Amino acid sequence: MSKPITPLVLDSIGIFGLNRQASPSSLEHQWLTTANNIMLDDRGRITTRKGIKQITDTIGSSSSNSYIVKSLGEFRNSTGSATIFAGSNDKIYKLNTGNTPNTLDEQTFTGTPQTLTDGNWEFCNFNDKFYGVQSSHTPIYYDGTNWMDLADASGFSAPSGVTTFDPTSCLGGFGRLWVGGVAEANDVVYYSDTLIGHKFQTGAAGYVDMKTVWAGDQVTALANFMGKLVIFGKRNIAIYNSPDDPSSADFALDEVVRGVGCVARDSVQALGDDIIFLSNSGVRSLRRTMVQDKMPLTDLSANIKDEVTTHIVNADMAQVKGQYCLCGGYYALSFPDRNITYVFDFKGNPDAPRVTTWNFETKKTPKALLSTTDGIMYMGLGNSDYAGRIATYDGYFDVEKSDVTSTYANQTVCEAAGYTWESTNSKCWQSTNNTYQADFKTVWLDFGDPAKAKLLKRFLAVISGGKDMSVTMNWYRDYSVDFDSGSFTLSPTASGTSYLWGGSTSLYGAAKYAPSFQPAEYKMSLSKSAKVLRMEMKGTVNGFKASLQNMIIWAKQGKIR
Question: Which of 286-295, 386-395, 421-430 is the most confident on average?
Fold first, then answer.
């Protein structure tokens, strides 16, 4: 008697995210072994990442290849206004959103400014001013109107005994500006006078000498955590109580975490009541619990530990950038010179984030990340062939803007060709919507019965959205590296009523609603038999988000073998 065809349901495929630490033959089907350019939504479903949308013109000429946006910062003043600044090469630029595309306006320094040689700044806000520090440079600051060297501020005083005041990290908080990483005293943290960020020697200014706390370490980053001052070294972490009055007896060492520190300044990010940072052994969480009065450390990259530690050894830590995105509840950690970004999604479980990866064309590797208070994620782009641009994490194309002024030299011919004329610099810009590939690979699936062969009949997936996305499905059998393959194109059915701008049925003549795309079933024939099966899905993102609802393998039970 012929055995019936039965469904093997995978309705929670990949909900735990990426796991490259354990053997793919021993993991449950909720794990993935490849998770490239995908995200996991609130329900754990696999979705495509958004696009990297260029929003600015280029720094310098369009043929320039030396302008790399290495730092981004948001200046916020007491009135609530916000301005974005970028560091690139030997200049500071202001993001001018009044132009389309946005322009990067070079900032002029007053006074007698130093010669800048790099753009890898750490920016921090303090008392309606905006400060920047980086290696081998004296601090700079913006007073809301002008940029200048901190040394040119009226009444400036450097810390006593410091020949060259060149800190690499800064923190505005507790009524003072705090800095660390001065080359000739890299184990000392200096703090300014109360509410005066340019006075480090007079008044209530002072310093915290870490020599008595740790031996042979250096300050790499500073953070404000639950009303405590956190000082990161490369191999140690010190936490101080009552930093709002460092001259009092209450300002005291609360705890020292030894053997674990921060190896990348720009990886430190606040996440609610937590701090995320990159240590020499992986991504860590510094978290205070309500039960203990200590701060336990949690390894957030345990499932990808080997490859992350390999990057730590081989990558340039000065280039590493981390950012917690307010828009999506995830922490992005970029290794620009390794061309990979890890995404730690905290929406499901703050103690065990789900990890996926973003990969970009080499020319679009993010060199700077910034999540602003209005929930927009900005990226500084660039290497030798795609430099001096800023993009946002938006839409479902990797949008590239090209200067085509040489062909379309005035506004009339530019706009007639369907391009954008930017009047400030009299340039014509062409936008190109580039597609990108999202793919994932499952673990080896035995469907609870690894001894019996399954005669593979059909594959079925329920997918929402992804209009016109070309999908390739590969299936591997019995631990083989060879695979069989099939393909299909997503063609979801639109539902709802389409209202166009100014249409006769539009509400007040100004409504604009697009129809929504409903989930659809996509089927594909499978072949041959397997005791264990591994699935790989690759899709070309073409302007629309796609979300996998579930997968079903239809198979007939075979013999025990």
Answer: 421-430
DSSP-assigned states of every residue in 179-233:
EEEETTEEEEEEE-BTTBTTBSSSTT-EEEEGGGTSSS--EEEEEEETTEEEEEE
First vs last Cα of the chain: how many Å apart?
Answer: 20
Question: What percent of the chain stands above pLDDT 90?
Answer: 73
Burial class (CB in 10 A: 0-12, 13-18, 19+), 81: exposed
**CA dist., res. 189 & res. 82, Å (int):** 28
Kindly indicate the confidence band of residue 293, based on its pLDDT and cuts at 50, 70 and 90. very low
The Cα–Cα gap between 191 and 405 comes to 50
Return the SS3 of 387.
Answer: coil
Peptide bond before 101: cis, by omega within 30 degrees of 0? yes
Helix (H, G, I), strand (E, B) or coil at 153: coil
Is the pTM here over 0.70, yes or no?
yes
Q: Residue 314, SS3?
A: helix
Give the pLDDT confidence score for residue 64 in this predicted structure: 61
Q: From CA 546, how far away is CA 202, in angstroms rounded? A: 59
Q: Are 104 and 388 in contact (CB under 8 A)?
A: yes
Percentage of the chain lying above the pLDDT 70 cut: 91
pLDDT category, 363, cuts 50, 70, 90? low
| Cβ-Cβ contacts under 8 Å for 213 (sequence gap 6 or more) | 236, 238, 253, 256
| Amino acid (1-letter code) at residue 69 | V
Q: Does domain 5-15+452-560 have CATH number 2.60.120?
A: yes
The pLDDT of residue 413: 97
Lowest mean per-residue pLDDT among 22-26, 27-31, 98-102, 508-512: 508-512
Q: Which residues pair with 270 in a beta bridge?
A: 275
Residue 416, H or E segment: helix 411-416
Q: Is the CB of residue 128 less than 8 Å from the CB of residue 77?
A: yes
Please write the tens of the pLDDT for every residue from 325-338: 987 889 999 999 88
d(CA 378, CA 394): 9
Q: What CA–CA distances, in Å, run from 155 to 78, 194, 256, 275?
A: 23, 14, 36, 35
Rg (CA), the chain: 27
Q: How far apart are CA 343 and CA 331, in angstroms?
A: 6
Tokens representing 498 are: 């389409």
Q: Which residues of 248-284 are buried (b: 16+ CB within 10 A; e: fewer)?
A: eeebeeeeebeebbbbbbbbbbebeebbbbbbbbbbb
pLDDT in tens, 492-533: 877 655 544 455 555 555 555 555 678 899 999 998 899 999
Domain extents in the chain: 5-15+452-560, 399-434
Per-residue pLDDT, 516: 62
Please give the DSSP secondary-structure letter assigned to residue 518: P
Nearest Cα neighbor of 14 from 555, 534, 556, 541 is 534
